[in-house]
Design brief:
MetI-like fold; MetI-like_sf; membrane; UgpAE/MalFG_permease; transmembrane; MetI-like
Length: 296
């Protein structure tokens, strides 16, 4: 028994060490500098709550918060229904359904950076594939600036949907396979049409899985920034600047962002504020889910 306990400790030590080194320590390190004026060199200067006061006055940060909610809302509104519809279709006994599942899931295994570079070529204003086809079909008469001020947010939402839909589709399929087939057979005998079947049977019986998927979708959407960083770096004119990209630039200034100096003290305060915002949204979702559970 004693040897088994020692073995368990030895096996769990690598996970414990990595969690402490890569998860806990960076958070504690950042929390420490929230109250300091520190650019990564020299002696940190204690300034109390001044960094948080600056966060309150920082219009650029709050604009990035607004952009984050627009980006996350657009992604969720499209991704979740589309994933569910695809899951319902590909959960049926269709020829080639496993191949189609693999095709839809494929984007989730690509690196966000690689995927974004490919889409940068596709949506390029001057020689991108999308513009070439649209002009060949006479849908547009001149190239559309897909990453310009007017269309940039829509373009990055489309790319985000493409990258996420396969992942949520598989989770929905796992949930659908737990619904007894007898329920659908009884509904068919009662003359239930496909829309009623989806609304009154499939969605309610997916309840627990649906709650989990929505929670994952909300948190990942609020934290997403990699594709945006590669495609637009938050531009043009801050139209696609989201919270985590703004935070990233404070710790690791981008070459074209106009800022070349780290701001670790202020970045830590922004990071804490960002975490609080994501935490509040997640808590609100849990609170609403609990209320809905009590109703139904």
């Amino acid at each position: 028994m004693h040897k088994n306990r020692i073995g368990a400790y030895l096996f769990s030590f690598p996970s414990f060490f990595l969690t402490m080194a890569l998860g806990i320590y960076p958070v504690v390190w950042a929390l420490r500098y929230m109250f300091f004026d520190y650019q990564g060199f020299g002696t940190p200067k204690f300034i109390g709550l001044e960094n948080f006061a600056r966060v309150g006055r920082d219009a650029e940060f709050w604009h990035s918060v607004l952009n984050t909610f627009i980006y996350a809302g657009g992604k969720l509104i499209i991704t979740l229904p589309l994933s569910l519809i695809l899951a319902v279709i590909l959960n049926r006994k269709l020829r080639g359904r496993h191949a189609f599942r693999a095709i839809f899931f494929l984007p989730t295994i690509f690196s966000a950076s690689v995927m974004s570079i490919v889409f940068y070529i596709v949506f390029n204003s001057y020689n991108g594939i999308i513009n070439q086809y649209l002009m060949k079909l006479n849908i547009v008469s001149a190239p559309v600036d897909w990453l310009g001020a007017v269309h940039a947010m829509t373009t990055i939402v489309i790319i985000a949907v493409w990258g996420a839909v396969g992942n949520y589709m598989l989770l929905f399929i796992a949930g659908l396979q737990n619904i007894p087939e007898d329920v659908y057979e009884a509904a068919s005998l009662d003359g239930v049409n496909p829309v009623q079947r989806m609304w009154y049977i499939t969605i309610p019986m997916l309840g627990p899985v649906l709650q989990m998927i929505i929670m994952l979708a909300i948190t990942t959407s609020l934290k997403g920034y990699e594709s945006i960083m590669v495609l637009t770096e938050g531009g043009p004119f801050g139209k696609t600047e989201v919270m985590y990209l703004y935070l990233y630039k404070l710790f690791f200034p981008l070459t074209t962002s106009g800022t070349s100096v780290q701001n670790i003290g202020y970045g830590s305060a922004v990071g804490f504020t960002t975490a609080v915002i994501v935490g509040i949204v997640t808590w609100l979702y849990f609170w609403m889910s609990k209320k809905l559970n009590n109703v139904y």
